[in-house]
Design goal:
50% of the residues lie in helices and 6% in strands. The chain contains 13 helices and 6 strands. Strands 1-2 form a two-stranded antiparallel sheet. It has a two-stranded antiparallel sheet with strand order 3-4. Helix 3 crosses helix 5 (96-104) and helix 9 (174-188) runs antiparallel to helix 12. The chain is elongated and about 90 Å long. It starts with a helix and ends with a helix.
Length: 275
Amino acid sequence: MQEIARCFTGWTLDAGGAFQFLARNHDTGAKTVLGHAIPAGGGMGDGEQVLSILAAHPSTATFLATKLCRRFLSDTPPAAAVAAAAATFTATGGDLRETLRTILTSADFAASADAKTKRPFEFLPAAVRALGATVSVPQGTKSLYGSLHLLAQSPFDWQAPNGYPDATGAWINTSGLLNRWNLVVALVGNTLPGVHVDVNSLVSGTPGSITPAQLVNRLTDRLLHRQLIAADRSQLLAYAAAGVPTGKPIPASLFPGRAADVAALLLDSPYFQWR
């Protein structure tokens, strides 16, 4: 570490925060970093050599491949997938596009559905988009930014240098889930200033003519783009049909609230939380 620190002497920032190299503050002697000899008199190039050495080190390939596989495959990605991505990174001289290509075209990626939780920065935009919400500027954007803060993933607000966690346990816990549920209820209930959801428009048809089964089916198709397992659909259908005679449409007076509730239950379900 001392040898690396010597290579970066003289690297600093000016009064405006821009990078500058002060040659007078640089250690001009010879250095050795990870077995690589760096001759004396290299100036700013000493630090640049260190960056090149680190970029080409096998541990860097494994580290970056692990983070990418964790992001796109699972919290505990298969060792073979990490090794394949690391090999591509090394063979291509650090080409991240090709490294991602290896990951995204793998069988592990094809099998990764429902293996990762949406982090708040994915979950909130996905919910807004699925609901077809209209967002005003600046009031609506401020509301959504405040919601991200409540969900603990405001942009650029993570103080540690390792970035926001990319594992389920950091987000799916008692507090995290409760805040997600409450946020969805606020979205469909139009209680977020500057954000409006037309719940009726999510369900094709005229209120007063839509049965509970049609409501559940249409909202499931619109919000999830996937099928519910039979037991889950049965529970949701029972909720949508509460107080409605068998086979009859949901009364127009009940429809907006019932539709909003079913939409919230779908978005708060594991079907929408996982990606």
